[in-house]
């Protein structure tokens, strides 16, 4: 939720892939098991922020092979700064450094007639253009029945990241972000509001290449963009993509242009092959957060090439930016593969950071992990010479993680598992190297005691537990001996959890084994409990053969292939992010596809994320082209990703972004910061709820247990 700064006159405010004996799932290793007073309205010379400094120039993305810092990107570039020029900001006038556009058509300003008069704001519905960092401002007036009351109203602007209204009723953009917000004036019982928009226009040209950029001779005869994909949907705060393209020459020059409604960015540079450009992180954040909606304000991406004396037409793509962050991190099993020796291990990675973290080092090969819904506990199994593989838990609320309530113990274990809604129970496949006899058990996470030794029937594995704790899913009906993940036949089964929390009823096959190539594998529930994603590998449930991703309702309804996400036919093991964000579900999965021109022909599974339209349209593919999760070791095999929130913050008054960050479920605005706290009379946007009635704002419904803003598409 955006904070609301109010300016009040004369008043100061305070405010695993199957763990196969830590071997390569492709079979490369032997398989042995698993604000302020407003004054008179005047036009003033700006004294706001100065020039912005932007990192520019060609960059490269070079992964490392360090065990502690993985996938670090290196970048080279030149910093530039634009001089700030003060300009008259009267509405409707132009400036060499910025413009003010006064809309004279239909206006959105509204005034409330209290019976005694009408409050009006001027100017109305303007857009300020900030060109190369030169900040321009706008003075406002407020009249009540035609009488100037500017110094007596309370002013507020609801997008402080875009700009703020000052003591003298002057609006000053931050210059960091574009977009549109609402300026509101309150006088006695009357209110009026209008829109104020800011557009950022920026050009980076450290090599002074622009003067030699002539008219295009025609379409580019060879250049192709190989990453990102056209029509990719990104969330906010995801690490900037490395743009990659082929069929060009060393020393070619480029003009990269990214534009949307309120942000326009151009950079000139030269690079050699393989041709890549890491978009500057600060610019990517500004571009992302200046967007107005994934569908309503798409990002236009153009890459234009100059080779020799020939300038070619741009190669174009469209990207889309969902206006919400993707909370949490991905926990995944990594096998070294080409990175060298060592055991399999579980790493975590935040899609926003592009750096993997080895959060726990037990000293042996481990995997087949899952994570509790509050993000504080990992359950996994150890390949330490014992069969079944001993189960243990890790307290990841500490850094680094430490052993939890269950430590590895011979005779108590299995393979894959899933936590219930509150983390008190674990549903685990015992996997006795005999798929036909594999059973699911419920384990007490406080002490490892078995609460139910056989939840369904023999021949079941790969369990999932719904976020509300009311359903489980699994694959059942294995017809082969050996490991469950080598079984080529299985049904996707769903059952209701009884009130005792350890038994089930109403078992139902929702996807039969014969319904398509391969078999259902590794189901996972959506954050709202209504959908399951799963893969259909053609070699058991391994990620070694072919594989597509699927979505199905928990009653077996609306089964659909996620074709855009898994068009490579080498995609496996999907899991949902813990919350919907910006109008989409988000799913992380493994794919052996090429990653641009960085991983070509390696056939090595890596983490990718796709946006799933919410709601999915019945009978049509709701997925979107995926993006690569930066920060993985690209020499390794990434397997069995599990998306979970960050460990929630227990202490009050700690800085947070939204309710999912706090164990209380509530992230409260305190002055300029948001901190963990307790629920007030109602739940603010982003905070925990049980129903729509809990949420403060009528247009902010309770979705996935949190009041979520409805963002434009």
Description:
This protein is mainly beta and 713 residues long. 1% of the residues lie in helices and 37% in strands. It contains 1 helix and 52 strands. The strands form 13 sheets. Strands 1, 4, 5, 7, 11, 14, 15, 17, 19, 20, 22, 23 and 24 form a 13-stranded mixed β-sheet that branches. A 4-stranded antiparallel β-sheet has the order 27-26-25-48, with no helix packed on it. Strands 28-29-30-31 form a 4-stranded antiparallel β-sheet, with no helix packed on it. Residues 1-99 and 102-109 have low confidence and may be disordered.
Keywords for this entry:
four-stranded antiparallel sheet; 713 residues; 52 strands; 13-stranded mixed sheet; disordered N terminus; mainly beta
């Amino acid at each position: 939720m955006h904070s609301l700064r109010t300016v009040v006159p004369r008043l100061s405010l305070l405010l695993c892939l199957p763990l196969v004996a830590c071997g390569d799932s492709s079979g490369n290793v032997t398989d042995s098991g698993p604000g302020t007073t407003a004054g008179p309205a005047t036009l003033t010379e700006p004294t706001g922020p100065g020039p912005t400094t932007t990192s520019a120039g060609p960059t490269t993305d070079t992964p490392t092979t360090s065990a502690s810092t993985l996938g670090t990107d290196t970048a080279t570039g030149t910093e530039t700064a634009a001089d700030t020029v003060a300009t008259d900001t009267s509405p409707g006038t132009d400036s060499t450094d910025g413009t003010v556009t006064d809309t004279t058509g239909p206006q959105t300003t509204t005034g409330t007639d209290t019976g005694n008069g009408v409050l009006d704001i001027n100017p109305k519905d303007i857009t300020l253009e900030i060109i190369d960092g030169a900040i321009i401002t706008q003075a406002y007036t407020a009249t009540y029945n035609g009488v100037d009351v500017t110094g007596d109203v309370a002013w507020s602007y609801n997008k402080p990241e875009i700009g703020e209204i000052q003591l003298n009723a002057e609006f000053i953009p931050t210059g960091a972000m574009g977009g549109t917000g609402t300026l509101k004036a309150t006088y006695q019982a009357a209110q009026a509001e209008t829109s104020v928009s800011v557009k950022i226009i920026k050009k980076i040209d450290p090599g002074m290449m622009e003067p030699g950029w002539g008219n295009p001779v025609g379409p580019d005869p060879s250049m192709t963009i190989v990453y990102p994909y056209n029509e990719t949907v990104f969330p906010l705060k995801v690490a900037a993509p490395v743009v990659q393209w082929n069929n060009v020459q060393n020393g070619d020059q480029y003009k990269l242009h990214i534009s949307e409604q309120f942000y326009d960015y151009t950079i000139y540079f030269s690079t050699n092959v393989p041709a890549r450009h890491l978009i500057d992180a600060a610019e990517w954040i500004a571009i992302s957060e200046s967007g107005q909606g994934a569908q309503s304000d798409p990002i236009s991406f153009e890459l234009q090439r100059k080779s020799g004396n020939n300038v070619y037409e741009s190669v174009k793509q469209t990207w889309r930016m969902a206006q919400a962050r993707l909370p949490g991190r991905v926990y995944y099993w990594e096998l070294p593969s080409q990175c060298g020796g060592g055991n399999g291990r579980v790493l975590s990675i935040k899609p926003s950071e592009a750096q993997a973290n080895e959060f726990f080092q037990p000293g042996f090969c481990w995997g087949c992990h899952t994570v509790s819904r509050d993000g504080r506990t990992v359950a996994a199994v150890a390949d330490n010479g014992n069969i079944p593989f001993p189960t243990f838990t890790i307290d990841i609320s500490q850094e680094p993680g430490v052993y939890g309530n269950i430590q590895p113990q011979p005779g108590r274990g299995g393979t894959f598992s899933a936590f219930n809604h509150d983390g008190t129970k674990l549903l685990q496949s015992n996997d006795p190297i005999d798929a036909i006899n594999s059973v699911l058990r419920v384990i007490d996470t406080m002490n490892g005691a078995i609460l139910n030794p056989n939840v369904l029937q023999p021949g079941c594995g790969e369990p999932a537990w719904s976020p509300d704790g009311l359903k489980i899913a699994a694959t059942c009906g294995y017809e082969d001996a050996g490991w469950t993940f080598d079984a080529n036949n299985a049904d996707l089964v769903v059952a209701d959890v009884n009130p005792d929390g350890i038994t089930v009823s109403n078992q139902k096959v929702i996807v039969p084994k014969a319904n398509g190539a391969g078999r259902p594998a590794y189901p996972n529930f959506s954050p709202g409990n209504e959908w399951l994603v799963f893969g259909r590998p053609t070699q058991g449930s391994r990620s070694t053969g072919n594989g597509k991703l699927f979505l199905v309702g928990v009653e077996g309804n609306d089964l659909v292939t996620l074709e855009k996400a898994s068009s490579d036919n080498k995609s496996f093991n999907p899991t949902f992010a813990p919350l919907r964000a910006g109008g989409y579900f988000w799913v992380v999965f493994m794919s052996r596809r090429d990653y641009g021109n960085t991983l070509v022909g390696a056939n090595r599974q890596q983490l990718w994320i796709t946006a799933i339209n919410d709601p999915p349209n019945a009978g049509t593919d709701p997925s979107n082209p995926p993006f690569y999760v930066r920060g993985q070791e690209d020499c390794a095999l990434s397997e069995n990703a599990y998306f979970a929130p960050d460990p929630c913050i227990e202490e009050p008054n700690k800085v947070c972004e939204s309710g999912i960050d706090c164990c209380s479920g509530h992230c409260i605005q305190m002055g300029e910061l948001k901190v963990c706290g307790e629920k007030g009379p109602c739940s603010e946007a982003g905070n925990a709820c049980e129903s729509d009635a809990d949420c403060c704002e009528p247009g902010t419904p309770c979705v996935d247990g949190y009041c979520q803003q409805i963002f434009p598409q």
